[in-house]
Design a protein that fits this description.
By secondary structure, the chain is mainly α. The chain has 6 helices and no strands. The longest helix has 35 residues, at 80-114. The chain has helices spanning 2-35, 43-57, 59-64, 80-114, 128-153, 159-169. The two termini are 34 Å apart.
Length: 177
């Protein structure tokens, strides 16, 4: 099960990276096309949707690899037992908050599909299609947070803490800037 979950998080990271690459390719295409007098209608719509996809699809991967902002002023000063309790409290609250986000993202996208909402930009497609990246990213993040909560409940150290410690041991403090 661990391999499957880790692959899901990695897939989100890969899809986010592909989105960023496509943003780059579209921006270069748009710049070149304008130089040669070609119209590039709709490119901005695609770039906006890809920006949202890159942000939401990367969240679970970033969370599990310790790339979310964490305020550790209190947890660094307390005992291991208290630190574990704080982590569990934080992960419980995060599960509720991300669950709420996931519920509404799913409901919102379903309603877009149900009412056949159409994007009102230059690219005319059903709106639920670009909204899917929001839903998929939210579900992946919820899965990652709940997964992490169960790991910590089982006595394991949080994956994101281990990942940051390993980076620091290698002398990589780039994510701390």
């Amino acid at each position: 099960m661990r391999r499957v979950l880790d692959r899901v998080y990695m897939l989100g990271g890969v899809l986010a990276a592909v989105s960023v690459f496509l943003i780059c390719a579209l921006m270069i295409f748009q710049s070149l096309a304008r130089e040669f007098g070609f119209k590039t209608a709709g490119t901005n719509d695609l770039v906006a949707w890809l920006c949202a996809a890159a942000a939401f699809l990367s969240m679970a991967h970033a969370f599990k690899h310790g790339d979310f902002v964490r305020v550790t002023l209190l947890s660094e000063k307390v005992s291991d037992r208290t630190r574990r309790r704080l982590e569990l409290l934080s992960l419980s609250l995060a599960s509720v908050a991300v669950g709420y986000l996931t519920w509404w993202a799913s409901k919102f996208t379903y309603e877009s599909w149900q009412f056949n909402e159409i994007a009102n930009g230059m690219v005319v497609i059903p709106l639920w299609i670009p909204q899917l990246s929001f839903v998929v990213g939210a579900w992946m993040l919820l899965l990652a947070v709940v997964d992490e909560m169960f790991l910590v409940m089982g006595g394991s150290e949080p994956t994101y803490v281990v990942a940051v410690r390993e980076r620091h041991a290698k002398g990589d403090f780039s994510s701390d800037v």
